[in-house]
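User: Teach me something about this protein's shape.
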Amino acid sequence: MCMFKKLIYFVITVVLIFSLLQISAFAKDTTITIKPGQVFNIFDYLKDVGDKLTVIYSGNNSKTTYKVLEKGADEKGNYLLCEVTYEPNWDNDPPSRQKYYIPYVPHKIGTVTYTKKNVGQVTEDMLSNKYVSDDIQTLGYLEGLYTDASVLSIDKINGTPIKSTQYWYFANFLPQSEREYLASRFIDGTAFEWPSIFYTINVNGKQIHYEQYGAMPYIKNGRMMIPYRALFELGFGLPENQVIWNDKDYSVTVIKGDTTIKLKIGNKTAYINGKPYTLDTAPELKLDRTFVPLRFVSEGLGYKVEWIPDPGQRAGWGTVNITGN
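Assistant: First, the predicted structure itself:
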């Protein structure tokens, strides 16, 4: 009888061990290398919880790693929930969790042609899948190139000069010296000056399409900087005679009701109805556009400003809600 009990305990122990080890002992760890634009299907490599796939991109030696955390189904169909990490991760973002639905079939949404330092002109396929809109995927691809200091220009979309497409604002590049300086600061995670199309700015519920002004906002010293005409004219609906640029002293004056604000390029002293205020970040001239600190001028005109960071903690993503007046 004692031997029988020992046998039962042994069987139970073995079952428990194998149930615990099914994730690790039998999980597959695969590494593949692909060329730029090459299509691959993650479901060729990821099938069960614990499976891991490391994709090395031969074009720039970056890596993306997928690890299956969960298998399941929802209203869209069967999926794998994966933890996704990127290397190098310039923004020091934590690993993201993404659902990949079966079948996951990347498809070509177009081509992009750009000029890379020490390489020359390159044309690559842009890929997406049915659960990501083609426009968002294209914007993400273009912003990735825009913030790559080794990319000297983005030239064409689907063979058409980019300046003749809806993405024309990505043709406006910072000086190369400044691009390399910003890239060098990514090491300590302090460089947010890269212009970003993924900042959503709303005034009383209406989105400001600042890209119409050929420039995108950015964060500097913890302050969002925005092209002043995009904010004052598009956002606040002020006419040109209430938004005055002085090319003699490089200043901008905005008048709304009984409030007048004056700011000057490179000067941290601003004036509201003649009273001086010290700014954290001075207005700047970039890409032939004047950028001003959004919160200071908005609150100075009587608006309330709320910053909502991206839930995924991605640098260059977030929402600003401006309300009032």
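Now, about its shape. The chain has five helices and 22 strands. Residues 108-185 form one domain. If you'd like, I can walk through any region in more detail.
User: That's plenty for now, thanks!
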